[in-house]
User: Which sequence fits this backbone?
């Protein structure tokens, strides 16, 4: 009999944990922010695209119209927009 109360208590504790975890983002239905940054530097592109530095350099030289933002002489690439551009059909047709 005592073991069944133990499992009920464990179940209630787990239930409370998952309900509490779900309520953390109650006012933010889209969930927590993405683990990927909004803007990345050109030097970080190889890491996020899983390409070599030479491949990224060739890609940016071949496609100067890649989505980017320049601030104080430094090129930043909007991560989500760059991925959409990189995976679009128009990119592969060129």
Assistant:
């Amino acid at each position: 009999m005592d073991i069944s109360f133990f499992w009920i208590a464990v179940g209630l504790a787990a239930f409370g944990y998952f309900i509490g975890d779900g309520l953390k983002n109650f006012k933010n239905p889209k969930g927590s922010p993405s683990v990927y940054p909004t803007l990345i530097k050109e030097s970080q592109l190889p890491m996020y695209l899983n390409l070599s530095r030479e491949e990224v350099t060739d890609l940016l030289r071949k496609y100067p119209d890649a989505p980017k933002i320049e601030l104080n002489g430094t090129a930043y690439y909007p991560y989500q927009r760059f991925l959409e551009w990189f995976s679009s059909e128009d990119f592969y047709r060129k």
User: Anything to note?
Assistant: The CA atoms of residues 15 and 21 lie 10 Å apart.
